[in-house]
């Protein structure tokens, strides 16, 4: 048994929006899967189990048959060049990979959208419409004396959210945790958090989450509501009395039109900040989605669901959704990027398909008209950087066991070079 350098505490997990950096990885020998060390996280353990301790050979495929990397790049470049409107989706990569995808998207006029784009755009639309006041994991951990989870606990999205928010830590002597709209599984987690310095509370929804957040926002704004539920009245008073309240939500868990809930949270925070201090914290954007959004916005000025087309830069938060574009036949080629997650297969389509993905995705992409190029996973096969869920923090990734697979950045750069001159112009 050998232990990688990542086991010494220099590993950042790339598989979750939290980008935890307090755990390590144990590497064995041969086909033995990598294992989490120093703690427990179901999501990280499952993801690490997709990687053998020693790198396995993986070959590109064209039309379902093995091919050289040069042949696969040539076939992929031909597909993208022939496309009148390609779609770049998934976008599961690190900063370097996404930076290299951007000029390729510009050269081909591609629309870009991340996996889980519907959830990501809910927060983006609320930010564009009304603005926001958000915090970081570190500030919430060290300062928040009241944490309100909106719409249940986001443990399915971020299993270690309690640890990362410092629930139970001594940094904040007394902390109250509220779950607004708990699920059936939340009671056990809350009970585990309760203890010295931590009190917990569950408040059932009044109608649905839209109604409940609207009521809470009105109570925090101190509007007269004769029939408001006592639990929400008490929560509004507790929010006003808190030194620093943080409202935590997970866009992937919100229902359709969840941007309205996001706006209610932001309005509540705004009312509180007139006299005390409060902030929102949104949990989402794992597997590179947050990184894709940050990098594309940094390079183009526009978030996901945008393109550099014949009319210049365009952003369409609804019309440019990947699922809608594919369903409407509005695109004629798909480039899918999924370097982190072996479960992140491209959507079913008969369009020309280029996949830059985890080697385990090869079988699901094996068909005529498809090019599959296996790529290394940042944080496992190579170093890199990803943006954490709080958006302002760039986390370094460290290789657990380097291998010979190219990264997304190398493949994207070579694809750009392989495009015919008339397309690249």
Account of the 3D structure:
It is built from 14 helices and 18 strands. Helices cover about 35% and strands about 20% of the residues. The longest helix is centred in the first third of the chain and has 14 residues, at about 70-80. It is an alpha/beta fold and about 425 residues long. The strands form four sheets. Strands 4-3-16-15-14-5-6-12-13 form a nine-stranded mixed β-sheet. A hairpin with a 6-residue loop joins strand 17 and strand 18 (about 395).
List the helices and strands and how they pair.
Layout lengths: L23 E3 L8 E3 L4 H7 L12 E2 L2 E2 L2 H14 L3 E7 L2 H14 L2 E4 L2 H14 L6 H7 L2 E5 L10 H4 L10 E6 L5 H8 L4 E6 L5 H12 L9 H12 L3 E5 L9 H14 L5 E5 L6 H12 L5 E4 L2 E4 L6 H6 L5 E6 L14 E5 L12 E5 L9 E4 L6 E4 L10 H11 L2 H4 L1
Parallel strand pairs: 5-6, 5-14, 7-8, 7-10, 8-9, 10-11, 14-15, 15-16
Antiparallel strand pairs: 1-2, 3-4, 3-16, 6-12, 12-13, 17-18
Helix pairs in contact: 2-13, 3-11, 3-13, 4-10, 8-9, 8-10
């Amino acid at each position: 048994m050998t232990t990688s350098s990542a086991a010494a505490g220099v590993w950042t997990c790339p598989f979750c929006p939290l980008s935890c950096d307090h755990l390590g990885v144990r590497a064995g020998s041969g086909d033995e899967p990598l294992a989490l060390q120093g703690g427990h996280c179901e999501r990280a353990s499952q993801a690490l189990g997709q990687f053998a301790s020693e790198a396995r050979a993986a070959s590109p495929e064209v039309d379902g048959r093995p091919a050289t990397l040069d042949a696969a790049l040539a076939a992929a470049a031909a597909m993208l060049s022939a496309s009148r409107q390609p779609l770049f989706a998934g976008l599961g990569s690190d900063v370097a990979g996404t930076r290299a995808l951007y000029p390729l998207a510009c050269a081909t006029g591609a629309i870009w959208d991340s996996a889980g784009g519907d959830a990501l755009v809910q927060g983006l639309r609320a930010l564009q419409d009304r603005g926001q006041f958000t915090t970081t994991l570190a500030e919430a951990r060290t300062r928040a004396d009241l944490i309100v989870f909106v719409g249940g606990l986001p443990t399915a999205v971020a299993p270690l959210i309690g640890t990362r928010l410092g629930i139970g830590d001594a940094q904040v002597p007394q902390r109250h945790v509220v779950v607004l709209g708990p699920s059936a599984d939340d009671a056990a987690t809350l009970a585990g958090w309760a203890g010295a310095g931590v009190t917990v509370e569950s408040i059932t929804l009044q109608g649905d989450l839209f109604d409940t957040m609207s009521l809470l926002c009105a109570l925090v704004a101190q509007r007269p509501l004769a029939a408001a539920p006592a639990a929400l009245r008490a929560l509004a008073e507790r929010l006003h009395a808190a030194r620093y309240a943080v409202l935590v939500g997970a866009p992937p868990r919100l229902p359709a039109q969840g941007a309205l809930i996001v706006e209610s949270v932001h309005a509540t925070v705004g009312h509180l900040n007139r006299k005390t201090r409060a902030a929102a914290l949104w949990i989402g954007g794992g597997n590179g989605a947050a990184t894709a959004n940050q990098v594309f916005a940094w390079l183009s000025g526009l978030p996901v669901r945008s393109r550099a087309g014949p009319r210049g830069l365009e952003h369409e938060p609804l019309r440019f959704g990947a699922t809608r574009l594919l369903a409407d036949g509005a695109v004629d080629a798909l480039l899918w990027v999924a370097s982190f997650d072996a479960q992140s297969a491209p959507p079913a389509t008969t369009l020309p398909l280029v996949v830059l993905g985890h080697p385990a995705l090869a079988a699901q992409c094996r068909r005529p008209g498809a090019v599959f190029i296996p790529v290394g996973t940042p944080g496992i096969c190579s170093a890199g950087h990803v943006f954490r869920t709080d958006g302002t923090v760039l986390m370094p990734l460290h290789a657990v066991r380097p291998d010979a697979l190219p990264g997304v950045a190398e493949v994207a750069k070579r694809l750009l070079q392989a495009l015919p001159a008339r397309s690249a112009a």
